[in-house]
């Protein structure tokens, strides 16, 4: 395919902008003259632009020529490469516009993919085309609004670039302010020296004696040790600071003593910056737990402080950050000083010296935290990182051109930085995966497979693959990461626990809940040993263990583990820290599984309150919590509340992301299920198909999230009596899940159970039994025979046997389900109540009325405990119990139960609902058998009116109601058959 001149010129402009980012200086006043080759070539190209109309490129080249004079050392080679590439493309451009299309340089052809291949690469990103038989969705995909394609920045891209612009604006402002605050460079030139002569050894390890000490004088093991020592050292630190300001004539207002650094932030900093320090642990190198600032007005005051510290305290480390600023451009002078306390103990504290006019001019750099992680750790030089971020800002988008440029690069650290940004900030998992694989190849070649740097890339690859739903692929890399990090850092290192946590998550995705629990327990054990019991990561591990226990069906122990996590977190950060929200959410989900819906909502609302207090009402985490609240309310039958919660979540996501974002598909899916419960099957299918369209567009057809859409659509179609359509959707779901998860997976069993229930409900009971038998075999193999999912399958099997008129087999399966549920979930769980109702129905059919009555009473007790009085399930069980009591001639109690049921049905379903009509008919019969004919007649007339309106005059139920009305008008007792 021929390459157009416009295409060549566009790529030359992009390459030129990237060259500018390489040439752009940072915090270095010395101007280094560029090589003669670069200057010559630039001059030739500028002259060339005046000959032909090169548009934007002319200005870009002139800017590049100016930047060259400010070049730093060490970047001439990549700049020369960029310039030579531009030169080749410009020559190709001239060939095109002057008619020499066939004389392209082969190297230019290689660097300029044609539009066909570019379209195919876009398909790999899930934006323009899809493999796996997905082409039928292409037209629909193009109609989705708000979904970012190649060259169309997503909301995540726009938000990131906004932060990046703010970041560089902060730096530029800092540079400008510096020229006012320190015009002669006196502060920047001031020498600050430590007494330690540096804490790093020549071999790259650190001096063990400069680790923080605990209150016994030994190196701290974890944050608990560190904070105990900090509390003990705090009075001595404050005393030293007060002596300093008195000696140097500062006012008390000039001294700012900060509270102890929050534990969560301390934990994060230790992991980001000191994980790979030898010797460890990482927490022993945290010097800023106790910290203070002094605000100065002049160079003399800075000099006085510097002299006082040299003479009166041991300076462990120091840095004049007016000479080399922080990564965000802020300037101060930093000291880490060892403060003696309690005999021979000492604690290293942080002291920052701020220049007043410089500090006051800057507020809080709200975007600093977004980039801090990319400057932490040993992997990338700060100046190089700044250049890479500047390049991304200059290009302004993540597209095929940028990927082409990156994949040509030979700097593994640079590629790793971009891969992390793509994955962590930009939702570009496909591109991140491609870059990480390239990085791994380079690192394995340079460092070997067993190097700690290579190990970190194994870890990233595992995380990216898991985020894409590829648990098997993730486990391959995560297992390698565990081996490498254990070998280099020690098997009990917290970073190894982080890898084990991700392995546990991958095992959960695979459906191997026992292995998931084992990995999370190992991670918890390491973290407790290495970090101490009072640590945020330890609390997170308790939550992970709780989730794994819940997956195995042991919700009671899971709830206990969540409560332990809450105790840890509250002891560290108080009762109102937003860090508690995920724990409350997990606790709520487990309580809901346990059948404690009201307690679940209490926990979820507490999480929502914490999040709204910290983030405001418009935040993506709040949308996730609203999802959980909506799901609980839907199961509780609170359709208004469920719909409201899911619509609020959708509104947040549409505002924060876009209508075509995959997170919006989550809300569409939930809303579809709510609408279906409301009886709006067509409306439900509309939003569920929209969710499917978005997920297919973004993830492709073969993805677990896409399979969920097929399942939901199939379920609603079945409720809408479209059996063929429903089975088609469920088969699509089954095919996807088998391909991704294998044949023996709980998610596969879930779909087979759905198909079996549809078959049972449409008269094919034997087909239903066969499907449930397959699902049962899978579940017993994967999760064991004593699991709630197994009990659910047994109940479905029992219902199928009932339809097949095999009451013995039905009772056998329902009894097994009841046994599992009573043992695991307890006698008061809604699922246990469901088993009791099913068993009672079979016993009633077999005319074992005492047995049925006992089972219904047990079901009613469970419903009242789990759902409360005002729930549809409670009303249903009351009606069925009333029916048995009536047949047992216990009329007083029967009437009491049915009246309670009717009052609730009138409130929930309405007076015109068929379920309410059933209650009216039953109450009429009970009153009739007590010879209360007039009152009985009034209820039978209500029942008749509803049934005629809903079902028509000729429906059998309407005919029964007519007969009951006639009998009561005649003042006669109803025949048993009329019941």
From TrEMBL:
InterPro entries per record: TPR_rpt
Disordered: annotated span: 103-149
First and last residues of every TPR repeat: 497-530, 581-614, 623-656, 917-950
Pfam families listed in its UniProt record: TPR_12 (PF13424)
Keywords, alphabetical: Repeat, TPR repeat
Compositional bias annotation for Basic and acidic residues: 106-141
Name this polypeptide is given: Tetratricopeptide repeat protein
Source species: Nitzschia inconspicua
